[in-house]
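A protein record pairs a chain with a discrete description of its three-dimensional fold. The shape at a given residue is found from the number at the same position. Here is what such a record looks like in full:
>
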Amino acid sequence: MAGLTSLAAATTVGNPTLNISIFVIFVLVTLTVVIKVAGGKKTAEQYYTAGGAFSGRQNGIAIAGDYLSAASFLGIAGAIALQGMDGFLYSIGFLVAWLVALLLVAELMRNTGRFTMADVLAYRLKQRPIRIAVSVSVLCVSLFYLLAQMAGAGGLVSLLLGVSGEMAQNLVIAVVGVVMVTYVLIGGMKGTTWVQIIKAVLLITAAFVMTVWVLGKYGFSLSGLFDGAIETAKGSANAKTVAGADKLTHYGVKYGVTTTSKIDFISLALALVLGTAGLPHVLQRFYTVPTSKQARKSVEWAIWLIGGFYLLTLVIGFGAGALVGPDKISAAPGKANSAAPLLAYELGGSWMLGIVAGIAFATILAVVAGLTITASATFAHDLYKEVFKRGQSTQDQEVKVARYSAIAIGLVAIFGGMLAKSQNIAFLVA
């Protein structure tokens, strides 16, 4: 136990002041952008969908920013570092799901809906029952997805500030919740979209730099990187549990060995591929473009950006496994979720860690803001206006309810995140 404690202390890395300074700078810059582009009184259409004012390319980048969450960056990188190719299954499932969205969802959503997913289904089915059913579904999905992002925030800050106590992690989860609600209340969908665009550019750029850096250490040879990960895994204290330690070309220890694990694999694949196409915060993004053609174009942009990013996470994950090692990752606060920040520190020291950590925080903030505005729109538009008020409320009343519900959702997410902070984020999302 003493050895584990000392190892955890050893994985507290970087300069806490620098890490937090970079994070604060990002928050201030993005809040300034939000206030500048989205200040003033808003109609329901402006608050929920930014009035359909974004182009397909802009919306595609924003979708990538919305979709590439803490699970995509921290969770998947950690899963690959500790479980080899088993972890990469998440990336494949998340990406293939976008073909479903492109072929079956995007244009239909934009053609038949106005603000929410319930608008589409309500055309063919009974209004009130279907809106209640869809609202319950959307709120549940959004809240559980929020827990994953909050869990990432708690684990990340523990690593960056050198603290592992419950109170410290809970405090940062509360701070993230307050900032996300501020984005939503001030900026609505327009401000949230610009935050997601900025974050997508920063995240993909940082992942690309880390990928090139890692490959450079192995002569730009993927096989050399895999061999390095295998050697490090074999020498780790938990080598038997590391799927990549034996073989990198099969489904490893977790999937594909027993009948139960094969069923688990099929279940996971269905959840990832079909679940993504129904994520409410992604579906609502199709209303921020003016036409169905632009909605389709936005999905095409998102597929290229997201697919490229997941290829980068493969290198980042194995790079963390090879250069940091499973023992350090498992002992760090946040465990698997700390793999990417630890790799950044290994590559470029405190400055690189601070930049990557700041971007990881940005990732969490952008995604939770998107989830919050979607959940609040569902409550205000589908439940309050169409079910409780039977379509008789004014736009001012609807927007006011949406703002209040955003605050309530933020509070629920904060308390839920405090309970879920020790879980792997990619697992929580799936």
